[in-house]
Amino acid sequence: MLSASKIHQALREQGITHIVGLTDNLCRVLFQLLIDDPELEVINVSREGEAFALASGLYLGGKKPVVLIQNTGFLESGDAFRGTSWNMKIPQVILMGYRGYKSLAPEIERKDSVAEFTEPTLKAWNIPYHIMVDDGDIGMISTAFEQAQSTSLPVAVLVAETTV
């Protein structure tokens, strides 16, 4: 399992100024750590699509935001994402709670449908992504920031689940 405190530290190392998103069950521990950090500003949105517009505006204003949402909300916010982050070529990192990830295991008979749609949707929309399952994957955060910067496009980091 992923340590929320290690993700928090990895984000701090990237010089993040803002977290824009909507709390979900998978990342609630991480969200609380970020809210408690006096060096970061957390902006909660009412719908995930708002996160992309706000984060894009913050980037254009010289800040370094991260979008933090769940995969279900990402699927719902496709047009907002396309119309801002993608079309504006914002080098944005999206931390995405990967609801249903565990249900993708071959031995699980009943899959969470959002998990089955997540990666195919990212591929169809040409969004590079990385999956973090445990603390050994934390380096994917810096990889995503480098990739976003070099391509001037958003990159997703899928977060399987966090613990303190």
**Estimated structural class:** alpha/beta
Order of helices and strands: EHEHEHEHHEHEHEE
Shape estimate: globular
CATH homologous superfamily heading? Thiamin diphosphate (ThDP)-binding fold, Pyr/PP domains
Number of domains: 1
The rounded Rg comes to: 15 Å
Main sheet: which strands, in order across? 3-2-4-5-7-6
Overall mean pLDDT: 95
The number of strands is: 8
Helix percentage range: 40-55%
Q: How would you explain this protein's 3D organization?
A:
The chain has a single domain, classed as Rossmann fold. Helices cover 43% and strands 20% of the residues. The protein has helices at residues 4-13, 28-36, 48-60, 71-76, 78-86, 113-124, 140-151; strands at residues 2-3, 18-21, 41-44, 65-70, 93-97, 129-132, 155-159, 162-163. α1 packs across α2 (28-36) and α3 runs parallel beside α5 (78-86). The model has no long low-confidence stretch (mean pLDDT 95).
What keyword list fits this structure?
alpha/beta, Rossmann fold, single chain, two-stranded parallel sheet
Topology, pairings included?
Blueprint lengths: L1 E2 H10 L4 E4 L6 H9 L4 E4 L3 H13 L4 E6 H6 L1 H9 L6 E5 L15 H12 L4 E4 L7 H12 L3 E5 L2 E2 L1
Parallel strand pairs: 1-8, 2-3, 2-4, 4-5, 5-7, 6-7
Helix pairs in contact: 1-2, 3-5
